[in-house]
Specification:
Layout (H helix, E strand, L loop, with lengths): L7 H13 L10 E11 L4 E11 L2 E7 L10 E12 L1 E6 L17 H17 L2 E6 L6 H10 L7 E4 L32 H13 L4 E5 L18 H13 L3 E6 L2 H10 L3 E4 L5 H10 L2 E3 L4 H8 L7 H23 L4 E2 L14 H8 L4 H16 L16 E4 L15 E4 L2 E4 L7
Parallel strand pairs: 1-4, 5-6, 6-7, 8-9, 9-10, 10-11, 11-12
Antiparallel strand pairs: 1-2, 2-3, 4-13, 13-14, 14-15
């Protein structure tokens, strides 16, 4: 029987973990007790004063007033009585693999192995910023799948990952292809698929190599060379084939879509979430509501692209596209929220430096949400999108012991989530008061 050797990216992840991960990462207390000065019940919206939480084996078993729930003998006790405790946060749109400081041509010099090692560091930064579960929407070489598995096995520190592998797109399009090199280099992205049957084959390939969901692009993008941000990609026939194939394998579909016609096509095809949704129109909003599709709108991102993007190598073409897109996207975020469309929290982390994910909360409030609605977007709504609402997104029995703690009241000032002081994932502490999160 042949011996299966690990991929180069997975080998590097394991080596890096063995060299750099503290031994404490492998330890998990059987019984963990947390006392909170205030605990946010995201379902009711109430701040519960002086409450306690007991977890065993990484799961919450009881939540009650501290006076009714003293710490049991032998439990590891965490006194957070000076803090407000919330469920672990979630980000539905990240790109962990790669150096977030290199865009455009600057990114061409990094190998897959180098990008994967950056991914391990980015995962740790993301977790210590308070994000205990994320979707990774597009990584080369299935590096996000390897990173997901290494984290799950406890050898790399990071959030729980729902991995998409390589994005699937058209020849010359956003997310499937590589448009930076000239013809004589014969460069083509690994996710390119044209025509309904080729699209099905690419979905099957991704499933073969372990993805949790499928990412596609139904319009051009801001950061891809040579694509028009609002122009449709894929015919409705191709998108329907992709969605049907993915759903037949039990995988949800996330579709990058900026333009109104591409958004409409994606929704008619039955995608589960629309990413960016910048130019969504009334028809798209109505379709999203009718289908129960979720919008994931990265409305912090524009500030980094226009403020710092040129230094990071973002192409002038992309900067010009962002100037035409960001402001309209924010106003459409307001319109979609007012219309009652479900919005999950997703930031496109990796375009900007990892660890700044929580900066989006204040922008969501600025453009129409209450602080509680923004927090629910990053907990309850995103957990439902991920299909893990029975495991994460709230602090109650049966859920993972994922939680963060902040100073102050996030229902009054949501920006306090930008500076978390304590992070726990499945009963393990990854950031304690007094440590530096990023």
């Amino acid at each position: 029987m042949p011996v299966r050797l690990p991929s180069p990216s997975r080998t590097l992840l394991l080596i890096a973990a063995l060299l750099s991960t503290p031994a404490a990462l492998a330890r998990q207390a059987d019984s963990v007790y947390v006392r909170a000065g205030r605990m946010l019940d995201v379902e009711s919206g109430r701040l519960l004063e002086d409450h306690a939480l007991l977890a065993e084996g990484g799961r919450i078993v009881r939540v009650a007033p501290a006076a009714e729930l003293p710490p049991p003998a032998g439990a590891t006790v965490h006194d957070l009585s000076a803090y407000t405790v919330l469920p672990g946060l979630m980000d539905a749109h990240t790109h962990l693999v790669g150096d977030a400081g290199k865009h455009g041509y600057a990114s061409l010099g990094d190998s897959l192995a180098t990008a994967t090692l950056h991914g391990a560091a980015n995962a740790r930064t993301t977790l210590r910023a308070g994000f205990t579960t994320v979707r990774d929407l597009g990584s080369p070489g299935y590096a996000d799948v390897a990173l997901r598995d290494a984290i799950a096995e406890g050898v790399v520190e990071g959030p729980r990952i729902i991995a998409a592998g390589p994005g699937i797109g058209i020849t010359g399009g956003h997310c499937g292809d590589d448009n930076l090199l000239p013809y004589d280099r014969r460069s083509q992205g690994e996710g390119v698929a044209d025509g309904p049957w080729e699209v099905r084959r690419q979905v099957r390939r991704n499933v073969k190599y372990g993805v949790d969901l499928v990412k596609t692009c139904s319009t051009g993008g801001v950061l891809s060379r040579g694509t028009e941000v609002g122009a449709p990609q894929y015919t409705l026939e191709e998108l329907r084939a992709l969605v049907e194939e993915a759903h037949s394998h039990g995988r949800k579909v996330a579709s990058h879509a900026h333009g109104a016609s591409g958004i409409r096509n994606a929704l008619l095809a039955g995608v589960d979430s629309v990413e960016h949704a910048s130019f969504i129109d009334d028809e798209g909003i109505a379709l999203a509501k009718k289908n129960g599709a979720v919008l994931v709108m990265d409305i912090y991102n524009t500030e980094f692209i226009l403020g710092e993007g040129e230094k990071a190598g973002i192409l002038p073409e992309s900067l010009e596209k962002e100037r035409r897109t960001g402001g309209i996207q924010r106003e459409n975020f307001r319109r979609a929220h007012q219309a009652g469309v479900t919005i999950a929290f997703g930031t496109d982390a990796g375009v900007y430096p990892h660890g700044q994910n929580a900066r989006q909360f204040s922008r969501m409030v600025r453009f129409g949400m209450t602080p509680l609605q923004a927090i629910r977007a990053a907990t309850l709504n995103t957990a439902r999108l991920f299909g893990i609402e029975d495991q994460a997104g709230a602090l109650k029995p049966g859920m993972y012991a994922d939680l963060v703690a902040v100073e102050g009241d996030p229902l009054q000032d949501v920006s306090v989530l930008e500076d978390v002081r304590f992070v726990m994932k499945e009963g393990r502490v990854h950031l304690a008061p007094g440590e530096h999160g990023r």
